[in-house]
Amino acid sequence: MPTIALVDDDRNILTSVSIALEAEGYHVQTYTDGAAALAGLSANPPDIAVFDIKMPRMDGMELLRRLRQKSDMPVIFLTSKDDEIDELFGLKMGADDYIRKPFSQRLLVERVKAVLRRVAPKAEGAAAEGSSNQVLERGKLVLDPERHTCTWDGKPVVLTVTEFLILQALAQRPGYVKSRDSLMDAAYDDQVYVDDRTIDSHIKRLRKKFKEVDDGFDAIETLYGVGYRYRES
Fold first, then answer.
1. Distance (Å, rounded) from C-alpha 33 to C-alpha 3?
2. Residue 28: strand pairing partners
3. How far apart are CA 159 and CA 13, in angstroms?
């Protein structure tokens, strides 16, 4: 079963959530601060990490920033009810999802399951998806779903699972407009609700990553009020 890392300075949350996840058969790693988590996640990478934003020694934002320098590990943020700015900033930095405190253990378990389903290729329905797991080449862009790798003009671009799925949905049909709803369907499980700003944040993050390897990158077009389109150069 997958391994899940929990990072939170509230030991009650660590204990209760660990029990809920272990009851589902998952192996759980726990850390009480960001600095300890960074060392542990690097030495023993889990399949997914769930961590709080406000923590001692190293907060969740800094932990995510350092993780993203070397890993595309799926990450779910835990935020307080009044941390909307943190939520949006976290998505821009590369978080895959967020859950607001207080939360039910059932909700967290379902969100974890949803992200893990997006990480692993689904055997069920693979035939219907056709070439979705084949290497996709669009001009300078090369996407390899099986290896979860992305290159632009031969240069690697590290993407989160959500970013990869959004880009794949756009690049599969260059020139065709994808609405935000269709991008949500491509990147998120049916049971997970996200709003328009979440997709917009992921698109901004995608553009930033590609501009870091090619300042002239303009392959993702915005059609205001409609959605986004991939333009093959």
1. 18
2. 4
3. 29
The widest CA-to-CA distance across the chain, in whole angstroms, is 53
Give me the phi and psi of 140, to 5 degrees please. -80, -10
pLDDT tens for residues 82-105?
555 555 666 666 778 888 888 888
Between CA 40 and CA 31 the distance in angstroms is: 8
Q: pTM (2 decimals)?
A: 0.55
Q: Where are the beta strands (DSSP E) in 2-96?
A: 3-7, 27-31, 48-52, 75-79
End-to-end CA distance of the chain: 42
* DSSP tag of 45: -
Q: Are 1 and 25 in contact (CB under 8 A)?
A: yes
And the tokens for 185? 């369907």
Label residues 33-61 b or e (16+ Cβ within 10 Å = b): bbbbbbebbeeeebbbbbbbbebeebbbb
48, 166, 213 from 32: Cα distances, Å: 17, 33, 36
Residue 50 host element (H or E): strand 48-52
Q: How many CB atoms lie within 10 A of CB 200?
A: 17
